[in-house]
Amino acid sequence: MKTVTIQKSNGGYTLIELSISMLVTTLVVGTMYAISLSMIKTTHAVDTKVTLRDDGRLAMDFITRNLRMADAATLQTFDGANVLVPLGNGIVTNIAFQTPTDLSGNQYAIDQNMNMEWNPIVAVGMDIPDINGNGYSIRELVVSDANQNYQRTLSLNLSPRIDDGNAANVFNAPNGGITFQRVGNGILVTIVLRRQEAPNEAAVVSQISEFVIPRN
Fold first, then answer.
1. How many domains would you assign to the chain?
2. In a domain, 20, yes or no
3. At residue 215, does pLDDT exceed 60?
């Protein structure tokens, strides 16, 4: 009787099979990397958006809280020569004001001669002249006094804006940074913030606006 022997092949994968396997693996790994990178960028963008929103809200709260206490008759703005002038109807990048206070200790913001008592002038706006010398200039929102002496920073994330060709520091419409505009008996405050984490990433922009009515 003749015995037939079947030999089992111990050979490995063929070159074509290995090539296909490597190609599939590369495609899978590449797809997973692309998805992971997209998720990281999305997370970054969301985190940046939240940070800008919180930054803007804190700055806006400071501005609106003080403007509500300010006397409308004291509203001013720095002109192109950095001189305080009465606030007009145009759109400006800074505003100055005074709030009543009890200086005489009689529990009223009026002295014994019935004169109003005032806190020193406070100015808030884009740091165009870079008063604190840190180089941020139009990207910084600062608080100063009547002589533009630096007091504090509210934000370092202002979105740069472009002058529309009007008189210095006066603009036709908000296009970035911070703007103040008299509307009726109130002030429309608009803050636009911008941050770009890396040169190859899209910039994240956040805008917040609020209408404030000062004291009469």
1. 1
2. no
3. yes
